[in-house]
Amino acid sequence: xxxxxxxxxxxxxxxxxxxxxxxxDSVQVAPGYSARTFFSWGDAVMADAPEWNPDATxxxxxxxxxxxxxxDGMHFFxxxxxxxxxxxxxxxxxxxxxxxxxxxxxxxxxRRPLDEVRKEQAAHGxxxxxxxxxxxxxxxxxxxxxxxxxISAMTPMAVSGPLAGNDALxxxxxxxxxxxxxxxxxxxSGFTPWGTYLVCEENWHNYFVNHDPEDMARRVSHKxxxxxxxxxxxxxxxxxxxxxxxxxxxxxxxHGGHVHEPNRFGWVVELDxxxxxxxxxxxxxxxxxxxxxxxxxxxxxxxxxxxSGDDTKGEYVYKFVPAGRYVPGADQANRQLLDSGxxxxxxxxxxxxxxxxxxxxxxxxxxxxxxxxxQAEVLLNARAAGDQVGATPMDRPEWVxxxxxxxxxxxxxxxxxxxxxxxxxxxxxxxxxxxHGQILRWHEEGADPTATAFTxxxxxxxxxxxxxxxxxxxxxxxxxTGTINGDIFSSPDGLAFDEAGRLWIxxxxxxxxxxxxxxxxxxxxxxxxxxxxxxxxxxxxxxxEITGITWSPxxxxxxxxxxxxxxxFPASDGKTRPRASTILITKHDGGVIGT
Length: 595
Ligand code: FEO
Ligand code: CA
Ligand code: CA
Ligand code: CA
Fold this sequence. Notes:
The chain is mainly beta. The protein has helices at 60-63, 114-122, 213-218, 220-223, 331-334, 375-380, 382-389, and strands at residues 28-29, 33-40, 71-78, 86-93, 125-133, 139-141, 149-151, 156-160, 179-181, 186-191, 197-201, 268-271, 281-283, 295-298, 304-309, 313-315, 317-322, 341-348, 353-358, 394-395, 397-402, 409-413, 438-444, 453-461, 485-486, 492-497, 503-507, 523-527, 533-539, 545-551, 557-563, 581-587.
């Protein structure tokens, strides 16, 4: 590109062009930087894990000890000694791809083979890996490590908060409603000031089926979340091998069999990465929806908010405000903070103001007459509660990022092809057939994370430049042009600030789609929030999504994830099966990433 770098810009690197080669199978990063594969699906995590078999014949017991599939949200937790050179890298494994098995996912006489289902369950969840700089100053994994750990869809978890032990969480397998097996569809994540990781459960509804249409019609906790009503569950048909995922009510079984099993997903799971024997805890005070992320804003006085998107077309933006305050060093007290507080949902008004509407039983119409018997039901059916209080339906809210100095809050609205059809356009979601998405930002009143009033604006509309032409020389239609000041992209998803206030944007679009032809492959970009300038930092292999982002505390190492690559990445030899991978990015001169 050779563009002049402005000295007053936060963005100090030279941009890379969009990658238009349909066979591109690598990662390209800005000049002066290197990117190397750090941690791929199947890599050993536990000390006794077998080495990954390129023919994918590793069984489910092996997979339980190896890296899961489809790396997504991620966070670096430094050790207090040598924080810039030693830490724990913790990441989600969102879902699984067919190359998990030698011949993809199979059906035998209408059923999924149990060994395949077990391997898929083992490849979900979380990896905790210890990482350290070696004598040459290069980041390496530590093997063996007492911290290395895999959490999967088979790991027992505790439940806390208002729904713990509630009838709505009891099943034939867990009559207590207090022990849940596993976590699934862990997309983005979060972390707390007291050093724990927040695993978020996104599209869990795709793993269940309820074959009773009358039950489904009246069961808000299934219907409002899109649980499948016919045939097999939307993703993998696990219920054909593992009855826990068949949520059809069975009156002959205690608690209706597994009808309540879907109520046990959609929560935030708190995990202490520094205690490898700790039991993950599902925190029900956060409410239940298809949660993309749970992102902290910490006030000077220790008051907090955790922001989340519910990534489905026309769903809402939420925040959870703990009742208590974070007190540095008060470890035992801090660990109780996520069990009580207030869940809010956002309304974005046309005049640029906004309001956080409390999802509290007895307030804002959340009453028994309107179908909410108590607070447990409000939290269980948070989407329906959002409907009741008049929240604004958004264009698929994904990640949230909080500016490290101003506490301004940014959210990616990735896209919504149904905008203008099922939902009218509005100021916050202004384009019909919105294929490219937008980023909003808001300012809480008084920069207070717990405020109930805010002002907001569109930060940028993604898409092509106004006046652009398509491959046939025809003008790009208005709904596909945006307001980007700099390098174009579509479908923002991952979003995070570094310490200097650079806004890093990761994309997730279908790179084979006609409307994406000018965009190239999915990418990582950097924006200066003051000037709104955007520059492309990295492009990924064909078919992948770029997601997950974290840094060492000195911001001289950055890790990102290449999810669902389609060709042969990271081997990039044209024959090895593709593997989701964590990529380590450093600057040749050892400097801060982005400068
Ligand atoms: Fe799993 Fe909303 O991305
Ligand atoms: Ca995402
Ligand atoms: Ca996405
Ligand atoms: Ca994804």
